[in-house]
Amino acid sequence: QRSFSTSKAISKESEESSAPKTGEKEAKVKEKKPGKSGKENLLDLLSAMKVDVTTKKKFQASKSQKSKEQPRVHPESMESATSMFQKATTEQQTQKESLSPELVAAASAVASSMPFKKSQTESELLQQLRKHESDTEVHRKGETNNIGNIIADMKVGKRPNARSPNRPANQIRFDDDGRGYTHDRGVVNEFDAVRRRKSLFTGKRLNIFPSMTDTTETEPKEVSVPSLWDIELAGQIAAVIKHLPRNGFEEMIQWTKDGKLWQYPINNEAGLEEESDVPFHEHVFLDSHLEDFPKQGPVCHFMELVINGLSKNPYLTVKQKIEHIEWFRGYFQQKEDVLKESEVY
Amino acid sequence: MTVDQDWSSVYPTAASFKPNTVPLPIRMGYPVKRGVPPEKKGNLELIKIPNFLHLTPAAIKKQCAALSVFCTKWPETLDSDAKCEQHFPIQVKMTDFVSAGPSVRNPKARVTTLTVKISSLNLDDHGRKKLIKLAGERYNKETDMLTITADRCPLRRQNYDHAMYLLTVLYHESSKHEPWEKEKTEADMEEYLWESSPSERNALETLLRMKGSEEGSAPTREELLSSSPVQEYRNSVTNLKNAGESKTTLLQYKESVKNLLNL
């Protein structure tokens, strides 16, 4: 296997640079299964590549299981390919029938974004893909149950954040079209944009090809319970729509909305809305709850003191105060015979 | 950094000290071995302490200008304290407490204080006296202020309602005349009243006897009462009793007695 040294130049983040190009491709394939639903396209995989690069060894072990994902992806990924890639791959389709067109499309995309040795890159990538495909066919029958285990082992919802451990949250600024990062523009700016696009449709339209309105309409997956992939997709859409804060003030606004920051000017009674609906006389005038008690005698006197104390207590809710009085009522009713004996009741 | 750089955009919000951004040659720290305080690059001390680089006067001015859009103007006619007193005699005081801590709550925040001058309430003399008696400790004689503090309820608004309720009740109760108020004795009196006091009785009797011993018509009580020496005596005695003893009041008393007894 040939490792392309160009990959070092391409990747701008240090964690990626260690992976050779083929390793990247393999990681892409591996990445494909865990985080993506059938609706995600391969460019997502390219973007995911940079974080979850595995060592070769680890890949080999799970290669058989991962790679057999590919034929499964066939029918679903058909839906989400862009017009551009579909047209690009029609020529290649005839040659590589065993491979899924999306994989081929992604391979060509990767190759096209490489600064040099495009055709060579592409052919090598496609070779790899074909190899995986053949392996897949062999293992397909026996190991369908392992996918379930693998899916079960995956963590939910951590993927979007796992991709960007290196990014300081305050300093990311998106371009107006939500495409790239305004800091650290390098030679591989385009590749970065391609890589970081969360889904196919967020990039700037190039208007090279006439837009396809009918064929790109996808039939929504009918599931009664939102599957993992749906949740993932929803999370990714939300992340794209949400604008990261451009400055400290917007960050503070975001934190206030999240509830991480107090609301200014400081209101010491923030959050006590329920209590504020209670009028003051329910706290202070508790005589009305003394109806069931005797009107004279030490019990009455005692209960008046209790009422007085409760009315001065700002730390109890009205409900708690009434419960106090109820308790006393029950208590005195229990001890009725004792009290009657002493002729007090 | 350029000289005309706008500092409020370098530090728009509170942020830690960034040595490369702040162009000042600051040094901080303990000078070890008779050296100098360490420089700002890589200086953890400077990063640890809170700074106010985001609150320069220019930045504050900008923020105030931005906030002034949301403010309403003070009414121009209320340009003196006296006018504010006249139109808004009741003053309510509520306090918010700000502290750095895990919780935003503070139990002292629920206390509401209501101050009002009794003279601004429509009370006659009886009402005023009754109100003062009812208020007790809450009335300040020097400033003529009634202060009601409410803190029985957990929330500030409830306490405000409670205080307003108490004021209303006080006012209405002091305007009422209860039947048992007629039994007010001299011990209940707030101030000295000469009209039916022993002093009046004694003075009149003395004068009557004095005049009676001489020849001529004995003047009636009413005439005596309305005569000026008696009035003067009355004033001086009232003054003495109400205002306390002082040089002026004693002198006044002396003069009035001398006049009365024709000494």
Automatic annotation (TrEMBL), chain A:
Stretches of the chain forming a coiled coil according to its record: none
PANTHER family with a match to the protein in the record: MITOCHONDRIAL RIBOSOMAL PROTEIN S31, SMALL RIBOSOMAL SUBUNIT PROTEIN MS31
Protein keywords: Mitochondrion, Ribonucleoprotein, Ribosomal protein, Transit peptide
Basic and acidic residues: compositionally biased ranges: 22-42, 66-77
Main location: mitochondrion
InterPro entries from the UniProt entry: MRP-S31
Renumbered residue ranges of the record's region Disordered: 1-43, 56-98, 158-178
Gene behind this protein: Mrps31
Protein name: Small ribosomal subunit protein mS31
Keyword Aminoacyl-tRNA synthetase: no
Family: Belongs to the mitochondrion-specific ribosomal protein mS31 family.
Biased composition (Low complexity): 86-98
Subcellular location field: Mitochondrion
TM region(s), chain numbering: none
Automatic annotation (TrEMBL), chain B:
Pfam families found in the cross-reference section: MRP-S28
Region span, Disordered: 212-248
Positions with biased composition (Polar residues): 225-248
Coiled coil: none
Domain Small ribosomal subunit protein mS35 mitochondrial conserved: 106-177
Name of the protein in its database record: RT35 protein
Source species of the chain: Polyodon spathula (North American paddlefish)
